[in-house]
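To close the chapter, one final illustration. This time we ask the reader to focus less on the individual chains and more on the assembly as a whole: which components sit near each other, and how the overall shape emerges from the parts.
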Amino acid sequence: MSELPTIPSDLSLGEWLRGTGPDGDLAICTRVRFARNLLGYRFASLLDAEESRELSAYLVQQVGQLGLPEPLRVVELSTLTELEREVLVERHLISRELAAAERPRAAAHDDAERVALMFNEEDHLRSQVFRSGFQVDEAYAAAEDLDDRLISSLPVAFSEEFGFLTSCPTNVGTGLRLSVMLHLPGLVWAEDMEKAANTCQKIHLAVRGMYGEGSRALGDFYQVSNQVTLGRSETSLVDDVRVAVTQLIAWERKVREALLGGERRARTLDRVWRALGTLQSARILSTEECLNGLSAVRFGVQQGLIADLRAADLNRLLLLTQPAHLQRLHGAPLDAAERDTLRATLVRSVLAGRGQGA
Amino acid sequence: MSELPTIPSDLSLGEWLRGTGPDGDLAICTRVRFARNLLGYRFASLLDAEESRELSAYLVQQVGQLGLPEPLRVVELSTLTELEREVLVERHLISRELAAAERPRAAAHDDAERVALMFNEEDHLRSQVFRSGFQVDEAYAAAEDLDDRLISSLPVAFSEEFGFLTSCPTNVGTGLRLSVMLHLPGLVWAEDMEKAANTCQKIHLAVRGMYGEGSRALGDFYQVSNQVTLGRSETSLVDDVRVAVTQLIAWERKVREALLGGERRARTLDRVWRALGTLQSARILSTEECLNGLSAVRFGVQQGLIADLRAADLNRLLLLTQPAHLQRLHGAPLDAAERDTLRATLVRSVLAGRGQGA
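The assembled structure is written out below.
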């Protein structure tokens, strides 16, 4: 058996997994995204390669002159390997769509990964701001400040009738998406999650998995975001998400109490400790089983059941056990079976000997 | 000689689980049983209560005068609680059928649990001899010696045409059942067990679970025994079982090598270590999951994968986690949920901190 890999000491988690924000035990991260398009260019999907190159270069140059408070690192995606692009996806800095596209395109982000821009994605320009935990006002204020700087210096497509024009009609109007990523193992275990998701959908909020549209809700992580962008003010859209997330957090806390009380307590403890035992002993771990196991252990740490593990270690594992991060750690591409073995080895090395009851 | 029927309060394993015999890693125990009936009494199922009482008392008294090399402890089963009878079943000293019967009946066994007699079971008298591991000749010789003493001093029903007469026609003739209990996780994991069982059945051998007829093969334990008792000499029946078990042991060893070689090794290690991790961490453990987990860990210890666990500890757990033994340990009856919790606690306490790789 090769030596146990250890987590690189320089691994930064990025703002979305920092885990330091308000309600950070349940709310992983708040994200605000604006979709914008430039006058004088067709929408991104209609551009030819030369136009794409020109647009992307123009945006990179313009944004470089904005003098933003935090300097941005620009990444030309075509110069990266597929693996390097996947790492950016796993860090939520670019979308899967942008990573997979073949046209000239770019991205930019600051060192702390609180700001990320995508150039020539589905829309010409998408700006994102992240804040750890449940920080709707802070994230929205920062995103609006960034957006103000962008639209004041760029010829942005805006209609008096519809608002900001976007490639997909679902984003027309405000072009705003506010999303909060929540960790809701209690609702899942108590089989209340479907009801919770339905409730959100009734008030026009989307409930998605960890990697947005079409992704599965691995590890009991859910992103709650606004569906509507048109015909409402930005602040009322933000308020909708804030109210719903506040209710979901309260619901999750209440369910957790129930899961740890009375007759249900034994089954809940069993679930938490088995998950830790499996993570500490498995030699082969799929992404799905790993995330679900980490979810249960995270619940156990947060509820004070497991004394000698820190949520930060679990957040690190959450990111490092993703396929691209694993391969970057290894220094070379790995097939799925090799990844499952390395994932198990890594998880064991971090969790070895842990798990004293509180 | 007829002592108070007490259940041993120590945690001795009894011969069948001592684990010291030849091929003891795969062959748990060899057992030889003879079924005998007395002249002058109808078969047990036809006796009324008074006749049953008389027969049982007669047998207890006669056997007490035999002067056997190892003194026997006699147990009047109607004076025991249901739980105490279940303990004897779990130790293989009496059958489920004898434990559940309502008629006067008794049993006797020596301290080492190498000899066990049942009075007024399906047949008037059943004698059993146990030897640790794969010891067909030793077990058969000892059983024959015991049987010689019994039939020379008791009026046993014997027909020149059919041999020994028994309550059920399947035992007529020799009245012999030779069985070897095998631990065959390799064959089960490699999905060869069904084929192995079919092969045995073709040569008229029965393959049954840990507790004989009708019991499931929990924990990958299988009893292989002769089906035929009539028209064949005892030695040829014994030879059949010996040959088949020798082949099964060789098959199991070959399969284990394959499971631990090449591409299959990783999955096998994963299975062993996950089982240990689950046993070390679960807070609720059913009998079935416990036995299956112990089976995998036993495999790991025997194949030298797990260095700091002894097979004897696992054998103890195997017995102590059975429902009646658990309740005896607790000192009071427990419902199924309480047993599952106590079982998990017991297993954790024995396996805590164990599991260094070899």
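Chain B has two domains: 15-256, 264-351. The longest strand of chain B covers residues 27-36. With these observations in hand, you are ready for the problems at the end of the chapter.
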